[in-house]
Amino acid sequence: MSAAQPSDAKRLVTLTVNGLERSGVAEPRTLLVDFLRHELGLTGTHVGCEHGVCGACTVRMDGEPIRACIVLAVQAQGASIETIEGLADGEALHPIQQAFREAHGLQCGFCTPGMVLAVQSLLEENADPSEQEIREYLSGNVCRCTGYVGIVAAVQRAARKLAGAE
What we know:
It is built from five helices and five strands; from the N terminus they run ββαβββαααα. Strands 2-1-5-3-4 form a five-stranded mixed beta sheet, sandwiched between helices. It has two domains: 76 residues, Ubiquitin-like (UB roll), CATH 3.10.20.30; 68 residues, DNA polymerase, domain 1. With 166 residues, the chain is α+β, with helices and mostly antiparallel strands. It starts with 10 loop residues before the first strand and ends with a helix. A hairpin with a 2-residue loop joins β1 and β2. Helices cover 31% and strands 15% of the residues. The longest helix has 14 residues.
């Protein structure tokens, strides 16, 4: 019979990240965003408010957008995680990324990875959202630079690209 593991002992966390099984060691209190950035080297997921309100740390867990700053790495054990690094196909940008580039949906780029992953979920749920639906869906993703006009245009353009209309 083995002794109980101390509650602060590091644990092996295994996830499927961008289609590949990845493992690392995390303390029970390690946030998923920190695990992705520091343990797995995926720095595209940004740390913003650390309270789950700005959306900079948005990733997709089992297909759903989540705030990686309020999920513990150990809670994600066995989950499928999608980060911005997994969206492009090699050098070819994903249509959402391309639309953000073409429609000037970014400036400094800090919010962009989380914004793009949120848009991916939006367009999977609603392939042709109205401007109001886009604004409502993205209301939890804060951008301090663009004023959202370019972001909304980028989402509309991405919707057309994904529908094959552009």
